[in-house]
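Changelog note: in this version the structure field was regenerated for every chain. One regenerated record is shown below for reference.
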Amino acid sequence: MKFKFSIYNSFKKIKPFIVLIFIISLSGCISIKPAAEKSGKSLFETFYVGEEGTQYFIKPLTFTNYSNEEKLNIDFTFRYKNEVKDSVTVNFSLLSSNIFKSIDSFSFSNTTNKIISKNIKLLFNEKKNKLFKSRFSTKISLIEFNKMFVSNEWKITIFSPEFSSTYIADKKTKKRINKLRDNVFILLKNSDKH
């Protein structure tokens, strides 16, 4: 009986240490996702496409028009192998109290560069809670898009027959632009030197 009692007492003393080790183990598991965000790999996906090299999908970045509280979410898809020559498919969604059926042009700029596209296609409109989501698509040059990563001060302006609206990058989006530059577009720049 004494032997059993001493094992029980020993376990009582060790129990807090076991709980502490368990908590530390769990906190280690929880910190995996922020590490992915720091590396930038959670911001894009890559797909091998054979002779055409690698396809990159840059996940949506959010821009805001603070005067009317509208949001614009934009994503980019392009292919790259050895040299920067492809076009970039640009899909963007306007989240607004207004529904948009057509856009005349799209201007994408930073402190040193500006890209304008006039060939914009409506993909769909849908109601999302109290707002409308209007989804559009266009293409821009990968060479010009690559130049956008000189600065993270991105600005997007939409022109339609009835209005023009400008959306700017917030702090979170600017950090993501920097991570994309350091993890994706640095590869494009370095390969062009060879």
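Spot check on this record: Residues 121 and 137 are 5 Å apart (CA to CA). The beta strands are 44-48, 54-65, 70-80, 87-96, 105-109, 114-117, 121-128, 131-141, 155-159, 164-169.
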